[in-house]
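User: Fold both of these, please.

Assistant: Here is the first one.
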Amino acid sequence: MAAQAQPGAVGKSFLTLAHGARLCAAGDGERRALARARHLAFLRRTHDRTGCPPWTLDFALIVWAGLIDKLLIYPANMQKNLDRLGGLVHSQRLLIALTQKGCSREDAYKLVQRNAMPVWRGEGDFQTLLKQDSDVKSI
């Protein structure tokens, strides 16, 4: 059975920026005018910060909004790819947690690396190795 795609599941904040460009062409009177005014104000502020002509950013936002709207996301495939890493995606979170528990950054890094390297070699998963590491347990 094929995984279900979720169109447009990413880029919501980007679409909020580009939304003004679309509203300028849709809606009625007052709503349309307000959307256009907000959109133009955004473009002017961006031009002041970047020096990029407003029409360039306007065009880019419209193009990128169209691409992101059509983007297909397969959550099952994403989870499968994360699982292939054996839990290594949590190494940064562990590093921060160890330092918050009072471990020095250098010692925390050594503990994380000592348990992460076997996972890269395919010798187990990160969580299991951490549970077996007495030094990590003691912190």
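And the second sequence with its predicted structure:
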Amino acid sequence: MRVHRSAYAGGQSTFSSAAISKARSSPPTPQVLCKNREALSRSRILKGHRDSVITSSRRAPGDESYKGLKSAKRSMSPVVIDFDKVAEVGLKGVRRAAVFMGLGLNAAHDPAFKSYQLSSIQNVQTKMHMELIPSNVNDDTLAHFKTEFGVWTIANGLREVTERYAVFLDGIHQVCQLIACSKQKLEPAAPEKRDSTFRRKGIEYKLQKLDTRFGVKPQYPDYLISINKARNCLTHRLGKVGSEDCNQGQALEVKWTGMDFQIELESGKILSANEAFDVMLPEPGTAQLKFVERNKSFPIGTFIRFEMHDLAEICNFMPIPYE
């Protein structure tokens, strides 16, 4: 799935135009007009899916909705698909998560930040003879508050990222169905029913259905599913890994891509960032950024913990599936 990454702005969302290049070459019914054609021309078309949204080998078994239609073409108004808007709803969630986790975790890690009360309501509390949160806690209790606040911030940041991505997949599914109808490969009555079911499901289900129905899938689908599993564990089990979270034996393994800086010398020797930092190089070399796989494994019964640089890399990784 390949999508042109839009500018840093707010809005709705973009669609991996993996299976759409042919839709703009011959007038469909309904007529589908694709905005951002430059992005489409640069998009990666999945092998075997250049000429069709749904190939016969990838249709769901026994799926009556995907039989070719024999009825005459229907006359409908043109439909404009703005792929940048389809993707923007998800990309905006990544930016929000990065900013909000940065604000929250920096406050949690700042020793000078000690304000934890929503407001001063001492008079009301005195009259009602109750106090929800003590007004003056000791340093150990405050440290506990901030640790738990950090975990809560991470859980909400990952929820923002994954739930926005799920909405993005809803948009992809809707566009795929529209194009399938225009090519008379999907019954006109099917999209509404399928959309209703699709929107209620989770990311793993949505990724699987997009692949089997339309041959559309992002880069690194397993990485996305692992990040979503971490989010579910943090939300439903307070970060303690249970059997339902495990994807590698008795552990939950979370994967994403990161970048390593290195210098390749003329002799072919590779220097890491630590080796090359603030030193005089023995010979000329070329600075390089290398994409590498990152992973963290959390055995069953342990708690999920991410460092801030892990979260920064996850946020930088999340736009990749939109491209």
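The chain has two domains: 1-219+310-323, 225-309.
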